[in-house]
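does this look right to u?? pyridoxal-5'-phosphate version
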Amino acid sequence: MKYYSLNHNTPKVSFSEAVVRGLAPDKGLYFPESITPLDSEFIKNIERYSNEEIAFQAIRQFVGDEIAEQELRRIVAETINFDFPLVEVEKDVYSLELFHGPTLAFKDVGARFMARCLGAFSKFEQKKVTVLVATSGDTGGAVANGFLGVKGVDVVILYPSGKVSDIQEKQLTTLGQNISALEVKGTFDDCQRMVKTAFLDEEVNQVINLTSANSINVARWLPQMFYYFFAYKELKNKSKKVVFSVPSGNYGNICAGMVAAKLGLPIHHFVASTNANKVVPEYLQTGTYEPRESVATISNAMDVGDPSNFVRIQEIYGKQIENLKAHLTGYSFTDEQTRAVIKETKDQINYLLDPHGAVAYLGLKKELDLKSDFQGVFLETAHPCKFLDVMESITGEKVLIPEELASVMCLKKNSLRIDNQYEELKGFLTKKTQQIVV
Ligand SMILES: *Cc1c(COP(=O)(O)O)cnc(C)c1O
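got this back:
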């Protein structure tokens, strides 16, 4: 499989090159050259197959022959070795719970898959790959955990000192092995600026293979399509049309769902549900795409003003807004609406939504009002305990912290404090490289 840049100003590359590079040299996102539908018999009989087999069949063409079948099967199995429950919360309304992975974040799947792909490639490479990420909270934990112990890959995570929650900080700083946490005396924006400078620094890139681990990377983006297959497999009534509502920030997750639909999975409609950051819902209404600064909300993983995967969505639907609108509706909800629905569902159906899942639930209900002959699935992307303060202020009750998270709180933090100056990061990266060369 080859990948082309959506800016069309650079040669096509292989899967491994697309993964190692992250972004194309012309700054475009990579996109697969073709998407070939799966055998319709396979989808018709999906209940007969294990999640591992389904995921393998779904991802296989996008990897091509660069990873041998047996190894790819192993990678897929390790990526998804936890539960993906589909819970019917009301008649014809399902919650797909994507928070049962090691860091209780849906980003676990993408991070685990990408890490293992890099590990597989590095067997043939002389140089190690260093994954460099700035995090404001959740992404860092999923990436750190996903890459833990993967041979040939080092991870360097920058986070703003004092600005991530205690749980999040522990998730980043207690792993050790190939994971280094740099605690930056500054803001998230400082961290992000330092990381971007490093990617553009030729001196650094000559000695060290740097890559990023956000959803622009095809190996983090594509495996998210597994969720849609797993949900469909679990639906009892497959003759009823299905709509998926996805809480969207950078639009990587929903865009992976659209790839699943291209592969032949019978998804009849998508809802992009979001908070006050509503560039995409507005685009669908007005036809004008106007990126802007993000605004802060209680569903903060979706506080994105210029979603990076939107260009991929446009590519999938041939850059035709009418075509896109036939498959996608966008809704935006306020924090007040989000708080109200969390309280309401807790009281009335005894189901605890996190702020992101709550936004997705709102979007789904709104769409089902218009589509009474449909059933719907909304994606629950994080465990409510990751937003303790918000949740407890809404429900007035303590949220139980699952054991996996509680145990990390007892471990000792291990981070290196640095100033918010690029030279400090550069010093760390180049010194590390010398250690590797020696
Ligand atoms: C990252 C994230 C999202 C948004 O996903 P995108 O793929 O960026 O649209 C939604 N919910 C949670 C909890 C997240 O961490």
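The pocket of pyridoxal-5'-phosphate is lined by residues 105, 107, 138, 215, 247-253, 301-302, 356, 381-382 (CB under 6 Å). idk if thats expected tbh
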